[in-house]
Amino acid sequence: MVQAQLMQERIRQTLLVVDDRPDNLESMEALLDGGDWLLRCVDSGEAALQCLLEEDVGLVLLDVQMPHMDGFEVARLMRGNPRTRFTPIIFVSAIAQSEDAVLKGYARGAVDFMLKPFDPKVLRRKIHALLEHERHRHELLQLTRQLDGARAFNASVLDNAAEGIMVVGEDGLIRFANPTMAQMLCCSVAELQGSAMLTHLLAPHSDGEWQQSEFYRHWQRNQSYRLHDASLRTRGGECVPVALSCSPLPGEQRAMVVLALDMSVVRNLHAQLESLAVTDALTGLLNRRGFQQALEAAIARTERSGQGLAVLYLDLDGFKRINDSLGHDTGDLLLRRVAEQLKACLRTYDALARMGGDEFIAIFDSLGHPEDAARVAEKLIEQVSVRQSLNGIEVTVGASVGIACYPECGQTVDGLLRAADMAMYEAKRAGRQQYRFFSPEMNGRARSRLMLEESMRSAIEQEDFFLVYQPQIHLDSGRLRGFEALLRWQHPVAGTVAPNVFIPLLEETRLINRLGDWIFRKGIEQRIGMSQYFADDLVLSLNVSPVQFGMPQLVDDLQRILEQQQLNPAQLEVEVTEGALMQDLETTREQLRQLRLLGVKIAIDDFGTGYSSLAYLRHFELDTLKIDRLFIANMLDSPRDAAVVSTIIDLGRNLGLEVIAEGVETLAQRDWLVEHRCPIMQGFLVAPGLAAADAQRFPAQLDWEALPLRSKPAH
Length: 715
Ligand code: C2E
Ligand code: CA
Ligand code: CA
Description:
Keywords: Phosphoprotein. By secondary structure, the protein is α/β, with parallel strands linked by helices. The chain contains 27 helices and 26 strands.
């Protein structure tokens, strides 16, 4: 493009001839016609200046002697104007000039003098040469302008780039740095120039000789080098995280260009994200992931220091009740409050995490003795258990704490966590508001529990569970009242596992909720299967565990299954233990009310073993009392137990409740019960739990005489 422009200018080059005498002009015109230029002839100095303003003139042939304005004056004015300052002038004169005049002419900017008459050939050559010269000057001017433009452009790119840019020579010294680079290092560009690049980096990238550095090695191999995690050291000694990219410049430069990208914002963001990922949004404590990282780090530290390490697992007692009754906002408020209280008990460097729900965990580093952990546990329990006001409502929660020490109770994060969790359960079992250390026997139990839990999960999937049915008999007539469904687990290796072993586990692991649904479904299905063999009032009793009883959707679930299978709710009885009723008075009352509304009967299981059995009778509407097996087993020998049994029988009669004596094994026991007018019995004397098929064949009316007499039958 530049070339095309130059070509055009070659065509446009104008030769201006100035002479006041028309004949001179004419002869000049004739002489110069047909040349490689555009000829313009004017007859005065003024006209010449006018033409010079309007056109690009390559060369002026200027007559010296002219009226008004002579050639010298024209030349002087031309030189005063930037546009024509360098336009070449040849003075033409008819008379020989004095040396003075000639010198004056040159001083005014003439490039040559010609005396008339002159040799046209010489004149044309001269003109040619001068125009050529002028063209070159023009081209040069243009190139210079372009170069200046390009340089200014490059400079503005470098000056305005947001990245720091340096050129570093093969000697490791900075040859060039842009303002951003200087800004990043808090110094001036001049200070940077000539300094060694490595002195501006932080370890490890600043270590060693330049020639051994990766920058130099890559440059030598003519390769680019990128460093994502470098840090610059500002003049004030501060650290600026940067990403560096270094690329070799073309060979003869013997240098590299280094770009530095400020990563402060990105790295801050990273740090923020990381901290978000490890903190619990509600309390600001660590979350499960954060806890894991903290414990890993603490274990590593303890390995080195040889000091003690303990993990405290804290679970709130009674949180669920508050959360359910006062709403989640209040629950959240309580959790935040507790988090604050716990924090206040700990040293600033102890890690504290919320593991979800109402479970908290603290890590004690550099512990002197395990007793220190116990002391803290006591403090934590005490702190949390104060009465507090939430949105104007007074509440009290408690806390149970399990403690596991490293490395005795577990060597890994998971191991320690499990141990502390176990110990916490132990504390809860022992009656809450306590702490417990994890002990070796707990360890053994933990292992078998784990195995059991694992096989229970697969048992649910493979349906290794089944129900057996134990008959309940009216003592006066021998008529069948109904069956209690009892759960059995047929373990592929261990054989039949008793419910006292696995039901508590199912409860702890909450697997009972999954299995509970199955029990309802299966029991009701098999009760329907029995319909054709028995009267309509045959009752099916289903056991409901405390956890199941505490589930808000219990009634809905039951109703759905009853409707699906079309069983009359009156044919169903739900057995609840005193333990289940103990949870929370209001919720329990509501749950029982809903169940009765549904139309199912309610029995209290193991009646008489709890602390406030009589209170339940006052608060709750019930249908049936089941006298605990232990009273029956002992009543013939112990007058106290006998008194309890007969009292319960009287109580039931007076309150219009059915009473069932459980665990009747002998005829003597039965006779005693008949004598004391107990209405219903259940026990091995009649039958243990029977498989569904056997239960169907059970007589609707029992012939006592036909019963094989057993004093203590095998289970
Ligand atoms: P429970 O509800 O008190 O059940 C009665 C227990 O006494 C049953 O033990 C039964 O086999 C046993 N039994 C019955 N008659 C006699 C007897 O004459 N002598 C003796 N020594 N024992 C007798 P099992 O089946 O081992 O159940 C134990 C506990 O497991 C039950 O106590 C109940 O609390 C729980 N359970 C059983 N099945 C289920 C179930 O399907 N769901 C729930 N949630 N819990 C269940
Ligand atoms: Ca029962
Ligand atoms: Ca019972």
